[in-house]
Design brief:
This protein is of the alpha/beta class and 529 residues long. It contains 15 helices and 23 strands. Helix 2 packs antiparallel against helix 5 and helix 3 runs antiparallel to helix 6. The chain is globular, with a radius of gyration of 24 Å.
């Protein structure tokens, strides 16, 4: 089997001791093994700070952007090989693998372009300057400068390529070195991607390090100048925030966690309309893409009570066409979950939801996946449950089943009722509202915005353009309040803020402008009499 190594302190090193085994989740065939035992992670942190940080901060935004462009091009040139690994180790269909790998390539390219636009600067002005005294001479300006520590990225299993790339792109462009740690179960994709970067798009020494396997004592070496960005369960995120070392040192922590994302069908979006068709497409895509293992996937579906039966039947018709099996087999559209633990968790979760909701399709029982030996693989069929009323299926408002599972609820067709139901998720990454009624859409939007990081307003005007709520685009933020973790990533330049220190600078305006490289806004010449 392949032995994965970590790239720390400027070199590839293999851990010792009992390894963790990575498998093909469709066949349970062992693929690789890895360990971090014996690695000096304290030295890795110190090396990134001492070598990678100064090297990145010496570069302009445009030069950092060129590093990202080289990474994007190197990955694109080896895209097919990455897709094959994602199919084997991630249980992805080829389409699902493209979603992850192309997301990584595209996000790196987006931030490369952003670096080119920022040009020769090494810091950012945050907003307009402000006069502080009686005359314009005493002036204040907020600036964003790179934090002098290291950014540690702990990524989730479901997007090993995109998760690595999107976090790294923001940090590197901001001028902060990165130590990235993928989830062990799917680390093979991230490992191959990291190999591509070190072989074909080398960064300054210490700018990007890689830990393949458990984090060991990595987080114990972080201090107040460092950043931890974590994607995973809310329980783990909460435990990290309470870690004595992180709390004592004031480490900046960003968490992206669980999310009971909702989709609302407006009363005007009647069956047969373009907006209704968009709604069905988005729900089915989110339930089946990556076997429903997306933090942005739709978990709760809200439809006016008058059309719930029609919505149920239409969703069942489309979901029934899904072919569950080995994603390497032609025609398979839904692959396995990633690990045996996840299989047990999803089956238990379905049983919990089914205690007070009717199973319209699927369920927690065993299935016969396409192209898989009997009893092998971690498969769950697309499962749709239907609540008897808006207050039924209470578990679906509390518990996220991280698989191809969603619950359909009736509501009274009013915006206020839809808002109240969406809020029961206690903070989500995204919700989607399908309506061509601007009044309805506006009332729902304003009612749920404080509870969501992103809101998609689906309508016939964008039905043929929008990729759906489950797709995270680098131009807009990714994150959400409450149970979703309270974090925020991406969002164009906003993605750099996590890795920057905001500082207020006060002084004589000409001196500040000369030092910071900012210029006053041009003022129109006074009108002549």
């Amino acid at each position: 089997m392949e032995r994965l190594e970590s790239y720390v302190a400027g070199q590839w090193s293999a851990g010792r001791g009992a390894p963790h085994t990575l498998v093909n989740p469709a066949t349970e065939e062992p693929l690789a093994e890895t360990s971090t035992d014996g690695l000096d992670l304290a030295a890795a942190v110190a090396f990134a700070r001492a070598e990678g940080g100064p090297a990145l901060r010496a570069l302009t935004f445009a030069e950092r952007g060129e590093l990202l462009r080289a990474m994007s091009r190197a990955a694109h040139a080896r895209r097919d090989a990455l897709l094959e690994v994602a199919i084997q180790n991630g249980g992805n269909t080829r389409g699902d693998a493209k979603f992850d790998v192309d997301g990584a390539i595209g996000t790196l390219a987006y931030y490369a372009d952003l670096g080119a636009q920022l040009g020769d600067a090494r810091l950012l002005a945050d907003g307009e300057g402000v006069q502080l005294g009686r005359s314009p001479r005493f002036f204040g300006q907020h600036i964003l400068v790179p934090r002098p520590g290291v950014a540690v990225h702990v990524n989730a299993f479901n997007f090993p390529a995109w998760g690595l790339a999107e976090k790294a792109a923001c940090a590197l462009l901001a001028g902060m070195p990165v130590i990235t740690k993928p989830a062990t179960s799917t680390a093979l994709v991230a490992y191959r991607l990291m190999k591509i970067f070190t072989d074909h798009a080398p960064l300054p020494r210490g700018a990007l390090s890689f830990v393949a396997g458990p984090p060991a004592d990595l987080l114990e070496h972080l201090g107040g100048e460092d950043v931890l960005a974590f994607t995973g369960s809310s329980a783990t995120g909460a435990a990290l925030r309470l870690s004595p070392n992180l709390a004592r040192e004031g480490v900046r922590v960003n968490v992206e966690a669980d999310s009971l994302n909702g989709a609302v069908l407006g009363p005007d979006a009647v069956p047969g309309s373009e907006t209704y068709a968009m709604f069905l497409r988005d729900v089915v895509r989110d339930m089946t893409q990556k076997a429903g293992q997306k933090c942005t996937a739709i978990r709760r579906i809200f439809a006016p009570a008058s059309v719930v039966q029609t919505v149920r039947d239409d969703l069942v018709d489309r979901l029934r066409d899904a072919r569950v099996g080995d994603p390497a087999q032609e025609g398979v559209t839904v692959g396995p979950l990633t690990t045996a633990d996840q299989l047990r968790g999803v089956r238990t979760g379905i049983e919990r939801l089914a205690a007070d909701a009717a199973v319209a399709l699927g369920g927690a029982g065993p299935i016969e996946p396409v192209g898989v030996p009997g009893g092998k693989g971690y498969f769950v069929p697309p499962t749709l449950l239907v609540a008897s009323g808006p207050d039924g299926a209470a578990a679906a408002h509390e518990h996220e089943v991280f698989g191809p599972v969603a619950t359909l609820f009736p509501y009274d067709g009013g915006a206020a009722h839809a808002v109240a139901l969406l809020r029961r998720g206690r903070g989500s990454l995204v919700c989607s509202v399908y309506s061509d009624d601007r009044g309805f859409a506006a009332e729902v939007l304003l009612g749920v915005a404080p509870y969501h990081g992103r809101v998609l307003l689906g309508s016939e005007r964008i039905a043929d353009q929008a990729p759906g709520p489950g797709t995270v685009l680098p131009q807009t933020i990714h994150g959400g309040p409450g149970r979703a973790g309270g974090g925020e990533e991406l969002g164009g330049l906003r993605g750099l803020h996590l890795y920057s220190q905001r500082t207020a600078v006060q002084g004589a305006r000409p001196i500040l402008e000369a030092i910071l490289g900012t210029k006053p806004e041009p003022r129109p010449a006074p009108a002549r009499p």
